[in-house]
Every structure is written in C-alpha cells, then in structure tokens.
Write a structure and sequence with these properties.
By secondary structure, this protein is mainly alpha-helical. The chain has one domain. The chain has 13 helices and 2 strands. A two-stranded antiparallel ribbon has the order 1-2. Strand 1 and strand 2 form a beta hairpin.
Amino acid sequence: MMSERQRKFRENYKSRISPFYNGLLHIAVMYGAGISAIYYCAGKLQNPGWEWLIAIPVFIAGNFIEWAMHMYVMHRRIDVFALRAIYERHTREHHQYFTDNEPTIDAVREFRIVFFPWRVLITLGVFGTVLGYTASQIFNANAGYIVFMSMAAQYLVYETFHYCCHVRDNWFVRNMPFINTIRRHHTAHHNQGIMMKYNMNLTFPLADWFMGTSDLRRGLFGHLFNGYSETHVKEELKPVINRFRIDDSRVTLDGPALTDDEKRAMAQ
C-alpha cells in the first residue's frame, strides 16, 4: 500500500514532467538505436568463430560494472556534475517514486522515471566504440564488433528487465525465468531500509551473490532461479525490511536514518 509520503512525491514528480515528453518515443529511440547498432555490427562480421567467446567476459565484466555503478555512483553522492546528477535522479527521485510497497507504474508518461535518459545510450556508444576498437587492434575486427554488440545487448537487457520490474504483476513477469528472479530482487532493493546496500544488480544477480550484497542467503544457482520466493531472505535483515514497509518516517531523500541496531544488522 502506498504511503502518503510516496503519493505526494509521485504527484509532484508527474506534475514536473514536460508536456512534450513522450514515453513511447523515448523507448523507440532507445531500442531503435540499440537494435540498429547490433544489426550493423552483425552485418560486418566475417565468419566469426572463437571470437564469440569474448561475449562471456564482456557479460561478466558488464554485470560487475552495473553493480559498481549502482553501489558507488547511483547511491553515493559524488560532487561532480554528471555523477551528482546520476545520484539525484536515482536515489532522490527513482527511490522516492518506487518502494517495495508500490513499485509499479500505471501510465506511459511514467517511463520517464523508469528508463535511462538518451544520454546514457550515447555514453555507452562512446565506450563501446573505444573498447570495440581496442579489441579489434588486439585480436581482429570480428572481436571488436562482438564487444560492441555484447555491450549494446546487455544495455537493452538491463532496460528490459528494469521495465519488467516496474510494470503491474502479470503472468509473464511471474513465470519467466530470470525476469521473475530479478523482479523480486529489485523490488526488495526498493525497500527504503536496505536500499543503500543490498541488491545492486538489475540484470542477473551475479555480482550481488559474489560480493555478498544480496538480501538472500543462497548459492549462485539459487540466486539465478529464486523467482518470487522470500524463503531465503537473511534473517538479520527481516526486522529492518518489515519496519520500513510500515513506517517511512525515518526515510529521507538521501536514504534511511538507521538506528545503531539496524546498522549492525546491515553490517552482518
């Protein structure tokens, strides 16, 4: 159930969305650019073989970069313009708009708070070009194109999974492997008591499992196929999670004001 604090924040945020914003155009440009880039690179490949294996380390590295960006930029205020803006948009807006009590959207205009702005896609394109070119010089052109394709595909998976986390519950998100796992994982991250430390992955919870920042106590396989189950939520976190579900009086724009006992529970 949505709290009064969350309701007021949502109303204020939606009132400030530009009347020229178009949610469908937002995702059309994003997916159109990403898919076009992948299609272009795929057309440039010349009988690739072993080079496809490069997608594996790119995927793993991307998963840990996703985790690190979420942990140390999106939830840590760094007083540098671009990084500070990321923090403001994520911690001070996205995490006020969505909580584990009400993590979903109702209208296309709310895509503004779900999907990254286009400048993120541009940034990804620049880094993908640099890394792809580097791989092409170290190995060959196929390797370079596959690096770029892997990065673009991972970004589109990120956005798709994130969208699936914030739509109304339905048969697909409940039953699709990986998506049902990350939906529960990300909804738990939106609990305002544990949001600053736990469940930083938004695609596959590999880095959260490895770094010990998952709210679950399970092995890797269990993390990947956990689905909606809360059976394995860490016992020490349950009091914090439950408290902030019913009382957001200690929530600020910069995260929760935790008691000493809650901090100790979070540190275990």
